[in-house]
Model the fold of this input.
Amino acid sequence: MGKGDETRQMILERAAEVFNRKGYFGASLADIMQATGLEKGGIYNHFDSKDDLALEAFDYAVDLIRQELQIAIKDKRDAIDRLKAVANVFRAIPDGKPIAGGCPVLNTSIESDDAHPMLRNHARRAMDEWREFIQRVVTRGIERGQIRPEINAEELVSFFIATLEGGVMLSKLYDDPSHMNRVVRFLDSYLDDFVRL
Done:
């Protein structure tokens, strides 16, 4: 990786955290300059605009979570174990892992709903990917006899994601990880008692 690529990567990493903590509208160019130690020209040498940087920074933040999920499920073959591993990745999100500020999909979805269509589209694509991933886990779990056949995969996906994102929101709002811990404990029990075959 050349020096220009290294600088671009550093800008993405630091801007992703700024946008995730402050939001697109709350994050100023001065915030990004302070986080990167670069002047305006140094940033815009690598990105065409704030929009361009925000979109790439969002994708970068989502990719950090994607990598954590891949690591968490890597050796898990049972569908319930995979779902529990996903929940445990989300348990760490309010604590700033893998990126400070909470879940970038949740944050961006709320902020960009009516105000920034391009960011909203990126958030929706990220959520579509997550929903499809969870749906595959559930569907394969049913096919393999790990999940009860009467489970409606789409309903479980919506419930699972909404519960995790709600836990992140409560933990961030109250600066109290006990909300997320309760959510993960509840999901663990729910998956064992009502979903596992």
Q: What stands out?
A: The domain at 59-195 is CATH 1.10.357.10 (Tetracycline Repressor; domain 2). Residues 117-143 form the longest helix (27 residues). Residues 171 and 177 are 5 Å apart (CA to CA). The chain has nine helices and no strands.
